[in-house]
Structures
1.
Amino acid sequence: MSGTGAEMDDDHILAGEYVLGVLDLSERLSVQGRIKGDQAFARLVEIWEIHFAGLNGAYVEVKAPNLLPKIEARLFPQERKSRRWFGWMAGGLVAAGLLGAVLLTLPSPQPATPVATLAAEAQALQFAAAYDGQNLTLTRTAGEAPAAGQDYELWLIVGSDAPVSLGLASAVETTRALPGLPAGAVLAVSLEPTGGSTTGAPTGPVLVTGAVSL
Amino acid sequence: MDDAFAPLLAKVAAQDRAAFRELYKTASSKLFGVLMRMLGNRTECEDALQEVFTRIWLRAERYDPSKGSAIGWMIAITRNHAIDRLRARPVESADEDAVLMMADQKPGAEAGLMAKGEAQRIVDCMSQLEGDKARAVQGAYLNGLSYQQLADRFSVPLNTMRTWLRRSLLALRECMEK
């Protein structure tokens, strides 16, 4: 970390405010982005966490319900699928070979090309958008899924028109049918309550944006 | 109490699911207690606890025992998630009697704050702050109160509360690094 003593104090205070939790949501998101990109600053946050950990004894234990089955279903969902895949493979290797040969001869759609990166300064979240002439695919390339009770929502803004919702974007990958996508349009992701905005316009903070270039 | 968690976390980092189940059994009530105190609403706390343990599984390899206790690391993840939820609430509701109760107590008055060893240092340093300022720091850390909620609670303007806490942080840093 470079800078004057005053700047170092500012960083110490900001890290302390972050750990205490008093910052508002947009400030928190910006600090979280900084933690990812600035090791010296991340260390300041760690130091405050360790300093204040001495207060943790004041938290009283409360017996938690057994949520392990739900947590494990969330963390390890691929198991059943992969077993089915394995069974199919074992039973149908010859068929698979034939199918592969057929697939190779089918006409492929226009390949999806990258059209925008949705990002914001000091924002951990990032999405890549690709378009194949019919479908827009949005892939979360950095950052985490929204917390329970929240969803990401994708918006298309053409010129000075009002944003149009393209639906939720909480999954790692989302595909939307989209008949046309003008260059220069802006894609944006906002943070919304579960299910998305009910007003037809973004209600939560806009987290990341990106301009479309075809 | 934290030493038992460090080896478990190391196993979780190595994708040991049995260790993960053991960690849930032994650490979930402490983390649930953190969530209940900060968020209050039981249903929300159950959602949050799932997210917290998901993050613990995904991030366990980043835990570094040289940088503090395993339970402290897990509580930091828990508090962070709780605060993200609190700050994402559309309007900070006035219905917060439960979380505000503690602010009346003197620093150190809570049973758990009769701390020992390393934990005693922050308690000692907090006791050198003026009473209201120490209570504000404690209300922020333990209950997740925002600047605005603290300003309302202590009947001071928002900017005064910001100044209080920033000066308190500088004083605490100086004291902790002595």
2.
Amino acid sequence: MNRSDAPMPPALVSPWQRLRAASNRLTTRSASPVLLAGLAGLVALFLAVPVVYIFLRAVGADAEAWQRLLQVRLWKLLGNTLLLMLAVTGGALVIGASMAWLTERSDLPGRKYFRWMFALPLAIPAYIGGIVHLALLRPRGGMLPRLLENLLGQPVYTPSPLGFWGAAFILILFTFPYVYLLSGAAFRSQHASLEEAARMLGYRPLRTFFSVTLPAMRPGLLAGALLVALDILAEYGTVALLRYETFSSAIFVQLSGRYDRSAAAVLSGVLVGLAVIILWAELHSQGQARFTQMESSWRPAPIVRLGKWRIPALLVAAGVTFTSLLVPVGVLTTWSIQAVLDPETLRSVLHSGSMGFSNFAWNSLWTSFLAALLAITLSVPVALFSVRHPSRVSRLIARVCQVGYAIPGVVIALSLVLLVNRALPFLYATPLIVVIAYVLRHVPQAVRASEAALNQVSATLEEAARVSGRTAVQAFVQVTFPLILPGLLAGGALVFLTSLKELPATLLLRPAGFDTLAVRVWVWANDGFYVQAAPAALLLVLISAVPLSFLLRREQIFK
Amino acid sequence: MSFYRLTSLLFILVLLLTACTPASPVTPEVPTAAAKLPDSTDVPTDVAATETVDQTISGKLVIYSGRSEPLIQPVIDAFKAEHPEVEVLLKAGSNSEIANALIEEQANTQADLFITTELFTVQSLSQQGIFQPYRPAAADLLPPEFVDPNNNWIGLTLRARVIMYNTDLVAPEDLPTSIFDLTDPKWKGKIAAAGSTNGSMQAQIAAMRQLLGEEETEAWLQGLLDNEVTFFGGHTDVRKAVGAGEFALGLVNHYYYHLQLDEGSKVGVIYPDQGDGQLGLITNATAVAVVKGAQNVPAAQAFVDFLVSEQGQKIFAEQNYEYPLLPGVPLREGVQPLESFRLAEVNIAEAALDSDATFDLMEKLELP
Amino acid sequence: MIALDVRHLSKRFHSGQYPAVNNVSFSMQQGEILVLVGPSGCGKTTTLRLIAGLERPDSGEIYLDGQVAASREVFLPPEQRGIGMVFQDHALFPHLNVYDNIAFGLRGRPSVEIRQTVHELLDMVGLEPLVKRFPHALSGGERQRVALARALAPHPVLVLMDEPFSSLDTDLRLEMREQVRSLLKAMNASVVFVTHDQEEALYMGDRLAVFQQGQLEQLGTPEQVFQNSATRFVAEFMGNSAFLSGEVIPGGIRTEVGLVSQPVDLPTGSRVELAVRVDDLDFYPDPTGNAVIVERIFRGVQNVYRLRLDSGLTLQAFKEHITMLPVGQRIQAKLNPGHPLNVFLTSH
């Protein structure tokens, strides 16, 4: 009786029919989804515009720009970027997973403290770590080589922090915590029975570890590795500082070099394409990460006794903490004290820039805070739509909202400069455009946090509120919102943290006279004024540690 | 329960706040708005006081500078001391980065002034119509080749491209005398220079392309690369590295030698290519231009006046060891006068037409 | 007075093969408990959600207390329908304590009245001492009672209960069943109760509505539905019936296990199926019998035997627990229902 009842082969279903079917579904579920879908769609549109624009610019660039880049730079940049990505991802996996094993599954002395020590480097932007290690290790001129030379009376070879190996070293040090946290959670949630079953089937402990324990953690490890990979694609400060050319730094050079944006647009297009592939893999692995979750019969896996390996393991763990946390913080503190004690340096620190120290500290705070607030606000309709009204449309919107992960700060900046200056000139060269860049880049984190929070709240609670006489909006405000608030705050803290550390987009988009802590550190350090840069860098690290510790305390083991 | 009520309330408050924010986007610029207020209310007095322009300038002055911040800040501070009502906002970066921004912003002008460390960029932008003419009274006193015939820009100071060296590492008899000595394998791995994003380096390459041609310039750059020259982002790194003995030689602007000497390092300086048939000393002129569409022309012009005044020129000479273009301003003690050297003669207007070729060359050689 | 009137209600989901609810009509009286029962996916929960206003019908009308709640022109959102609902997972607000959960639906009333109503209900469900507790500190049965109290507090025109006991363990479920039914009856509440458990349906309902594949198969008292199943499906679902084929002859039905003498309103020679429940069949050992014991299932008070007839059909029958017969024992089976059996025409 109803023509549309007959199942139709997919090929015969026209897009229009699909759309109608989808909209039908939207309207039938309850009264609000149309509005919600509209809001979520607008958010997705807002997030997608810069990427689409850059793609169009890249595709539309004249053949000559493509040809020149293909001939000279593209392959080398691609090689450089992928090589660094692989090296850092691999290194972060090894260090992150092994440190996680040490703190979660072994009797490493002081593992309670090491948990914090391994997570806290996330508060240190990699380029600040790079600045410190560069000052320490620079061949001949670094503090360490000179100390050794003074002690031994002759020059001693020390490894250089410059170039590929240096960049890889620094980036591993400051990205391994991602893998550490994710694999730590995976180790903790693993069933004791899993390993016991393998042992009963005749596997020795070591073989059990490699054939059962590690494979079972694959989703967690993969998710961590892909996050690191995306981070490396976007990294600008460290590679520029350590003079290893990747896509991000090459785009930056293009932007400050020739008076032609098409080369930068082409490079950006390729970079975003690369990142989208990794993001796709990452979203895919998210779906599978589920099988690491705990069940009711869960029992923690037993702690492994390290025995004679206890001391070596302790030394390795201490070494990792020393280089990734104690050295940067220690050196920055020493420099800061020097800066404060020397009146002239102190004066230049306090009165630097157009507005002075307190002004750019304040700028860092309010832009990051506003970005966090906006990102969370934007993420709520998207999360509500995708969690409460799952459909192809809502899933697509949620995926589009993840795109920020795949647009490095440099590309966002380029896109916004070109776009905003033409479309919204009144926004151009205001601090607000910096905030918009943060939002575009960090909304994915907020969406994930909001989705996770909403998934914890049963939809029947909202229905119960509706039946008890509340409108959809009242039900959200009185029931859903208070329950997801902690999750939203966590998402906000994450956006705040990453916005504080953001460098390339801020550098390119800030209006005249507008500095943030990150920019200030970069400008000083780039001119070789490490001591002047130190107080701002230290303050940045300390501020970052606040949201970070809030986030960590949400995890069981950090309580 | 009360906790949740409180947080809900907070959320709504925050929502309201965010909703309001776009309407008043520039929170930290509130003082600016206050500073501007007298402008609109004092219209009649403003008109009456036209003859004493200097006294009434106020508001925001946005300066885009290719000179790095430490090298321009002292002048800004001195200017602010004279004109406390003017709020100077500085954006410093490489010349080409700033030039790109100015081109991008043509229809949406942000900057009032552009300060650069070489003439190629300012000449090129001038041809694109980025600037508006202004001729300060002092322009007549400057050497004519450093004042744009159309008054679109005006020169400020000169810097010489020199080789500084660490006296501990280089014996007097080994000293190079030409920039072409830098490609000598005996200096392999012992030289530091600024990289391709540095304006002074770009200008040096542009000048050499004009004086020597593409091939010879490329051969020289390739020689530097083969000699494993370390390219830093800026000259401060170079001078500190040479001062620390990390490198024997550094290719820098002359004042970096003086700045490093001030820090007590054992460094010396060579003004290269003075022999017969040699290139001569390459110099770069810094310059300033008023941007077309500037929001605060009176303040911009006052700042230009200040830069070419005796007081402004003195700051460049005293604090940064530069060669002031205004005659009669004494050099800082220890700076060797330019008159004692043979200078390479570069046609700025011609080189400017070709700036993309310079970038092409650096890109082709993958100059870091 | 009619508390609920549902007319030609239909609802189809995008993903579904057939309509979730297909042209369903029924009505119920004030003070009645109507149980919607059927296997999972039969449309009973969707019907409940349509009544609640949590889903929008494709067609059909819903009248609450004589007022239209959903029709072609009208769709009242759930908050305007004045309905109470108890959810399968109870859906207690975790951020509110017992008192505030129960008071949630009373918003806007004078605070004296709220306090009085809440305490009345707390007293009724016996939770007065737990008034300050939060849901996570309650046992399953306590949560159940809070959910019921919350649904009843605003004195709704209709209470909807969606498998409310399914999250409880067996003993508690039986206990709650009794308590809740007597409470609902004491309050003279009109209730639509959804369950997939036929035993629970028979216990709870004044009337039962049996659903299958979105359609209402039968509506009637528990006795009617059980003893006079309208369709083969109802007989199968409500009594775990097996089906024995037979042929109508004058005066009864001839089957493999003998003649069933009961009046049949069908022409002689029709092929029919009889719904046979575990209590309808009797048997005794007989080496020349018509069936063999294939399994004995010990159920404590009784033994259930699975018997394979010579035709291959398997039926079940029970004996007291003291009677032990070995597997493989040949037996003679015969129908001994003591009441007319449900008879259905054999399809195709």
